[in-house]
Design a protein that fits this description.
The chain has 20 helices and no strands. The protein has helices at residues 6-21, 24-40, 44-65, 70-107, 125-141, 150-158, 171-179, 186-219, 227-258, 275-279, 284-295, 305-323, 327-345, 347-356, 363-386, 390-399, 412-415, 423-446, 449-454, 458-475. Helix 1 (6-21) packs antiparallel against helix 2 (24-40) and helix 4 packs antiparallel against helix 5. 71% of the residues lie in helices and 0% in strands. The radius of gyration is 24 Å and the shape is globular. It is a multi-pass membrane protein. Its main location: membrane. This is MBOAT family protein.
Length: 488
């Protein structure tokens, strides 16, 4: 079930009406049933895997809660980790590593007859697996009391707004909310609906329109060079942000209407002044997960400069692999790891250079340069994230710098073909929508957009809400377009 579908347009009001219409004791069971219905709408078989994961992690957590020492709890930790990560490996990574092993064996003239697994990746498995792993590790470390109520734990794992693409919640943040009694609150519901409307606008007006420009080029990159490649890179840079943050807004907004607060996942990432700053703003729940459950256990920054840089690089290599079993994602992660290592190593030199150029006394200019450089590096890395193969990615990454000596009159129509006959009008719509998103992010950087809107006269606020709704209905591209992060 997609958030931008008629199915969801019926599902959400029904769940909302039943939730606040039923007695308190039936509300959590209703949400659990709704969550499994939401998930089973993709493919019923997925629900068996989700239920099995939930039961094992629940039992492991309860067992660990009755044991006094980490040594006694460790077998249950290992059992849960083996189950969660093993499931993820089989469904997501087995065929990738099998193919790599077969290629290596062939190069060494060694026979290796390992069959391919004909498995479909369950929707959201990377997200709910990481959420469950965080819970189990926190219980093992004594940072979190194990949830004793099976239904409540099942709802924590399967809560439908964030089940398939996050944010990745922590037990310490979400489980207490599931124990609370929730009453309908008009202000909270209105805030949630506004967030959902903004998320839908970002998805169907911005992301899906930019996809029409990016897809023809990324799907056939060897037909282009220079400007069309640059336009496609910039289009995807905007598309993935509007798409993923749009989903997050829809998820957080829906949860807020029901009375639950999901963690913030994006904080104006394209206004970052360094790659490190970017990762403190982009997919924050995943970045925090890798920090707490991979980077710190590896030693963090406690074992010297060289080990710190190695840990950073390894974390981003794993982050790339988390996104997909493909060399393109691994290179994307490695690029960001390299960016961060070089950023750390060159920090003293860049500070000295800024002082010598007089930029230290011109903070606005220094910030603008930092934002421009960061956006360029991030956008270049998106090539590998979006490309269909490494060869396509390397072609785009090199040929974007070629062909600038002539007007690409023969290439642009092909690059803009996805926008249809009225591509100029579509480009203007896309440009206006992106400008609105940029203005919103700039406003959010200075303070809460909600507080700012509350300062408007009521007539102005409602005119803005109505304009957003009409723009979404008129300019939105409605269909079966999935959110990008559903594939992970």
């Amino acid at each position: 079930m997609l958030f931008n579908s008629l199915h969801f347009l019926v599902f959400f009001p029904v769940v909302l009406g039943l939730y606040f219409g039923l007695p308190q004791r039936w509300r959590a069971p209703l949400l659990l049933v709704a969550s499994y219905y939401f998930y089973l709408s993709w493919k019923p078989l997925y629900g068996l895997l989700l239920a099995a994961t939930t039961l094992l992690d629940y039992y492991s957590g309860v067992r660990m809660s009755r044991l006094a020492t980490e040594a006694q709890r460790r077998p249950w930790l290992y059992l849960s980790l083996a189950s969660n990560l093993g499931t993820l490996f089989i469904f997501k990574y087995f065929n990738f590593f099998r193919e790599a092993a077969v290629e290596l064996a062939t190069a060494l003239h060694l026979p290796l007859g390992v069959p391919t697994l004909a498995l479909v990746l369950p929707v959201g498995v990377s997200f709910y697996t990481f959420q469950s792993v965080a819970y189990i590790v926190d219980v093992y470390k004594g940072r979190l009391a194990a949830e004793q109520h099976l239904g409540r734990f099942a709802l924590f794992v399967a809560f439908w707004p964030q089940l398939v693409a996050g944010p990745i919640e922590r037990g310490g943040q979400m489980l207490p909310q599931l124990r609370e009694r929730h009453q309908f609150d008009y202000g909270r519901a209105a805030s949630g609906l506004r967030l959902m409307a903004w998320g839908m606008f970002k998805k169907v007006v911005i992301a899906d329109r930019l996809a029409l420009l990016a897809n023809p080029v990324f799907d056939h990159p060897h037909r282009f060079e220079g400007l069309p490649l640059l336009l496609a890179i910039l289009a995807f840079t905007g598309q993935i942000y509007a798409d993923f943050s749009g989903y997050t807004d829809l998820a957080r907004g829906a949860a807020r209407v029901l009375g639950y607060q999901l963690v913030l996942n994006f904080r104006q990432p394209y206004l970052a002044t360094s790659v490190g700053d970017f990762w403190r703003r982009w997919h924050m729940s995943l970045s925090g997960w890798f920090r707490d459950y991979v980077y710190i256990p590896l030693g963090g920054s406690r074992r010297g400069a060289a080990r710190t840089q190695l840990n950073v690089f390894l974390v981003f290599l794993l982050s790339g692999l988390w996104h997909g079993a493909s060399w393109t994602f691994i290179v994307w992660g490695a690029l960001h790891g390299t960016y961060l290592v070089l950023e750390s190593l060159t920090a003293p030199g860049r500070t000295t250079l800024a002082q010598q150029l007089g930029l230290a006394t011109r903070p606005l200019l220094l910030r603008a340069l930092g934002m421009a450089c960061t956006l360029a590096l991030v956008a270049y890395a998106w090539i590998f994230f979006r490309a269909n193969s490494l060869s396509d990615a390397f072609y785009i990454g090199t040929h974007v710098f070629q062909g600038w000596g002539r007007l690409p009159t023969a290439q642009l129509p092909g690059a803009l073909a996805g926008l249809g006959r009225h591509f100029v009008a579509e480009l203007l719509v896309a440009g206006g929508a992106v400008a609105l998103l940029a203005a919103s992010d700039y406003r959010a950087e200075r303070g809460s957009v909600a507080v700012w809107l509350a300062s408007w006269p009521a007539a102005g606020r409602w005119a803005g809400y109505l304009s957003l709704l009409l723009a979404t209905l008129y300019f939105g591209i409605f269909g079966s377009s999935q959110f990008i992060y559903f594939q992970f």
